[in-house]
Write a structure and sequence with these properties.
The complex is a heterodimer of chains A (about 140) and B (about 110). Chain A has five helices and five strands. A five-stranded parallel beta sheet of chain A has the order 4-3-2-1-5, with helices on both faces. In chain A, helix 1 runs parallel beside helix 3. The longest helix of chain B is centred in the N-terminal third of the chain and has 11 residues. Chain B has a five-stranded parallel beta sheet, with helices on both faces. Chain B contains four helices and five strands. Classes of the chains: A alpha/beta (about 140), B alpha/beta (about 110). Chains A and B meet through helix 1 and strand 5 of A and helix 4 of B.
């Protein structure tokens, strides 16, 4: 299949809903299949690339930080950005600026930029298809 | 208008009555002449076990809807691939990306 430009709009914050895992799986599949990807992160999803996310121990299981190896969405995204760059593909991630300011989520990993809902319109116009994964 | 619709259902019909509406919408679109795939993911795969909430899937299959269930979601929930309700096929999540790339109208519910 020829290379396409696919857009995704996300809304869910990390660590709360299976939609986050599914969204990341979709982004991984899109990159793996050679497509360019644009992501607009709205509302709580601006915390997906939050740079200060940290792993923690699990006292219930008696696991150390290393044993627990808690997955972090910022690391998943960093891996996807690196994979796309390594393959010569585009993975653009725009965080809604107002959503970032409301939540104090300014500290994002490298490769994430500040944007606005106008980016979602731009992505939808530029891309071959768009999937909106809305919070319910 | 797109000729193909790809509907994604992530909700558990035992938890919300609106989860069945995707199958109903899929049947309606087929009746209008569109090619329709219903992709079940997350708790949306729960009615793939033969049971009280499988009827909507069976009816959709009879109407001509292609019904796919995310392999990962099935494995997470311990649903055996060889015991899915008639007409449901397990599929990787890649099929969503493929549908988008092929231009299907892709809708998440």
């Amino acid at each position: 299949m020829s290379k396409k430009k696919l857009a995704f709009a996300l809304m869910d914050p990390p660590f709360e809903n299976a939609r986050t895992t599914t969204a990341m799986r979709l982004l991984e599949a899109a990159v793996r299949k050679g497509h360019d990807v644009s992501v607009f992160a709205y509302e709580g999803s601006v915390y997906l690339p939050f740079a200060r996310q940290a792993q923690h121990a699990n006292s219930v299981r008696g696991h150390s930080v290393e044993e627990e190896n808690h997955p972090l969405t910022k690391d998943w995204l960093a891996a996807l950005l690196a994979a796309a760059e390594g393959r010569g593909q585009k993975l653009e991630w725009a965080n809604c600026g107002l959503c970032v300011d409301e939540r104090g989520a300014q500290e994002a990993i490298a490769g994430v930029r500040r944007g606005s809902p106008a980016d979602l319109v731009k992505f939808a116009e530029e891309c071959d298809n768009t999937l909106v994964i809305a919070t319910r | 208008m797109p000729q193909r619709y790809f509907l994604i259902e992530s909700r558990d019909p035992f938890d919300t009555t609106t989860a069945d509406s995707s199958a109903t919408l899929a049947r309606s679109l087929v009746a209008e002449g569109y090619q329709v795939t219903l992709f079940l993911v997350q708790n949306g795969v729960l009615p793939t076990r033969p049971g009280s909430r499988s009827k909507h899937l069976a009816d959709a299959h009879k109407a001509g809807v292609t019904i796919l269930a995310d392999e990962f979601s099935l494995r997470e929930r311990g649903i055996a691939l060889d015991r899915l309700v008639l007409g449901v096929q397990a599929a990787p999540i890649d099929v969503v990306v493929d549908a988008m790339a092929e231009g299907a109208k892709t809708i998440w519910h």
